[in-house]
C-alpha cells in the first residue's frame, strides 16, 4: 500500500461527548406541533425521546468500537484528506467495489453489507461474488476533511475517487452509490470507463422526465414522487443549495436541531410504515447523526448542494454497464426510458419488493443480492 495512505481509527474526544450531554440537557424546546402526524415536521415527543436516549443511554464508545472493526485509512488527494473504509476480501478473484453514500447518510449505512460483500461464503453466498470494499466519506462529511475552496462538486469528487482507486492499486473496479453517491458513481463511470467495469445505482440524478403520450405506470409512480418532493419534501434542499452557511449556525450549535434535521428524512425517505424505529433502532439512527455532530460537518456537508444545484454542468454520458435497483419508497423512483439517453448500456434493472432511499442500511440482504447479481455480469 502506498505510503500516502495512512491508517485511521475513529476516536472522538471525551470533551466532545461531555459537551454533547451538556447541550442536550440544556436544550430549549419548541412547543409541540399542532397536528397528530409528521406534516409539520419531526414530532416533538419523539425528538425529545431520541435526545433523552442520546444523553443518558447511548454508548458512543461501544458504537465507535463497532465502526472501528473495519480497517480505515486517510489519504490526501487534490490537497484534501479523504477518509475511507477499506476491507479486502480473502478471495483472490474479488472485484474492488467503491460504495458512496449521500446526505444525510454516512459510512454508517454500510455496516451491514461490508461483511457479506467481502466474505460471501460466510454469509450464504458464492465465493466467486466477493468484493474488496472501499467506502469513502464524501469531502466535508464525516472524517474526510472539509474543502477550503469552492469547486468540490460531484464531478471533482468522482475524479478524486478514480485517483483513490488507482492509489490503492486497483486497475479495474466497480462502483455503487445512492443519493449523492448515485451522482458521484454516475460521473465516475462516465469519467473513467477504462478502469470502471460497471456502475450500480439506486437514484437517477440526470434522468429528466420525458413523457410522451399517456405516462406508463412506471412514469406515473415517478411523477407522483417528483410532485410530492417538490411540493412537500424539498425545503431542506433549497436551503442547503442556497444558504448552507446560514443553516449551519443552528445545526452546529444544537444537537437536538441536528438530530431533527437528519432524522426527519429517515421518516420521509424510508420504507418504515410511518415511523423510523419500525426498521432502525435508536442506536443506528444516532450513529449516523453522530458522524455529523462530532465532526461539526452540518455546514460543510450542506455545501455539496450549493456546489451542485443551479450550476452549469455537462450531463455525463455513461457507456459502461449499468445496473439499477428500484426500491419502491425511493424519493423519485428511476424510470428506464428517462435514463436511456444518458446511459447507453443498462444491462440490469430490478424492481425491489421493499425498501427506500437508504438501501444498504434498510434492506441489506436485498442490497447485497442485487449488487452481487449485477456485478457477476461484468467480472
TrEMBL record:
Q: Which UniProt keywords apply?
A: Aromatic hydrocarbons catabolism, Hydrolase
InterPro entries according to UniProt: AB_hydrolase_fold (IPR029058), Epox_hydrolase-like (IPR000639), Epoxide_hydro_N (IPR010497), Epoxide_hydrolase (IPR016292)
Sequence ranges assigned to domain Epoxide hydrolase N-terminal in this UniProt record: 5-110
Instruction: Kindly state a single biological-process term from the GO annotations of this entry.
Output: epoxide metabolic process
Which Pfam families does the UniProt record give? EHN
Hydrolase as UniProt keyword: yes
| One GO MF term | epoxide hydrolase activity
Q: Which SUPFAM superfamilies match?
A: alpha/beta-Hydrolases
Q: What protein name does the entry list?
A: Pimeloyl-ACP methyl ester carboxylesterase
Q: Which organism is it from?
A: Bradyrhizobium stylosanthis
Amino acid at each position: 500500500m502506498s505510503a500516502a495512505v495512512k491508517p485511521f481509527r475513529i476516536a472522538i474526544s471525551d470533551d466532545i461527548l461531555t459537551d454533547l450531554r451538556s447541550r442536550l440537557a440544556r436544550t430549549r424546546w419548541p412547543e409541540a406541533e399542532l397536528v397528530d402526524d409528521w406534516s409539520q415536521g419531526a414530532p416533538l415527543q419523539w425528538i425529545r425521546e431520541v435526545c433523552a436516549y442520546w444523553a443518558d443511554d447511548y454508548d458512543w464508545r461501544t458504537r465507535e468500537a463497532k465502526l472501528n472493526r473495519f480497517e480505515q485509512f486517510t489519504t490526501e488527494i487534490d490537497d484534501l484528506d479523504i477518509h475511507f473504509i477499506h476491507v479486502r476480501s480473502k478471495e483472490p478473484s474479488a472485484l474492488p467495489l467503491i460504495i458512496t453514500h449521500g446526505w444525510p447518510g454516512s459510512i454508517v449505512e454500510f455496516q451491514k453489507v461490508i461483511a457479506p460483500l467481502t466474505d460471501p461464503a460466510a454469509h450464504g453466498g458464492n465465493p466467486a461474488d466477493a468484493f474488496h470494499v472501499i467506502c469513502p466519506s464524501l469531502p466535508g462529511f464525516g472524517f474526510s476533511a472539509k474543502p477550503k475552496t469552492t469547486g468540490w462538486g460531484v464531478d471533482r469528487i468522482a475524479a478524486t475517487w478514480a485517483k483513490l482507486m488507482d492509489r490503492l492499486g486497483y486497475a479495474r473496479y466497480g462502483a455503487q452509490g445512492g443519493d449523492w453517491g448515485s451522482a458521484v458513481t454516475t460521473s465516475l463511470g462516465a469519467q473513467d470507463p477504462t478502469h470502471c467495469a460497471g456502475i450500480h445505482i439506486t437514484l437517477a440524478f440526470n434522468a429528466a422526465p420525458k413523457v410522451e403520450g399517456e405516462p406508463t405506470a412506471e412514469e406515473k409512480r415517478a411523477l407522483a414522487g417528483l410532485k410530492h418532493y417538490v411540493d412537500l419534501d424539498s425545503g431542506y434542499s433549497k436551503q442547503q443549495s442556497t444558504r448552507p452557511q446560514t443553516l449551519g449556525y443552528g445545526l452546529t450549535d444544537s444537537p437536538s436541531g441536528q438530530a431533527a434535521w437528519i432524522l426527519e428524512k429517515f421518516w420521509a425517505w424510508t420504507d418504515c410504515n410511518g415511523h423510523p424505529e419500525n426498521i432502525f433502532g435508536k442506536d443506528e439512527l444516532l450513529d449516523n447523526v453522530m458522524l455529523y455532530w462530532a465532526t461539526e460537518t452540518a455546514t460543510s456537508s450542506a455545501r455539496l448542494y450549493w456546489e451542485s444545484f443551479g450550476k452549469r454542468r455537462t450531463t455525463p454520458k455513461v457507456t459502461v454497464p449499468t445496473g439499477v435497483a428500484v426500491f419502491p419508497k425511493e424519493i423519485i423512483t428511476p424510470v428506464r426510458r428517462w435514463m436511456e439517453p444518458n446511459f447507453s448500456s443498462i444491462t440490469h434493472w430490478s424492481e425491489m419488493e421493499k425498501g427506500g432511499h437508504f438501501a444498504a442500511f434498510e434492506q441489506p440482504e436485498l442490497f447485497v443480492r442485487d449488487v452481487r447479481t449485477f456485478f457477476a455480469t461484468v467480472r
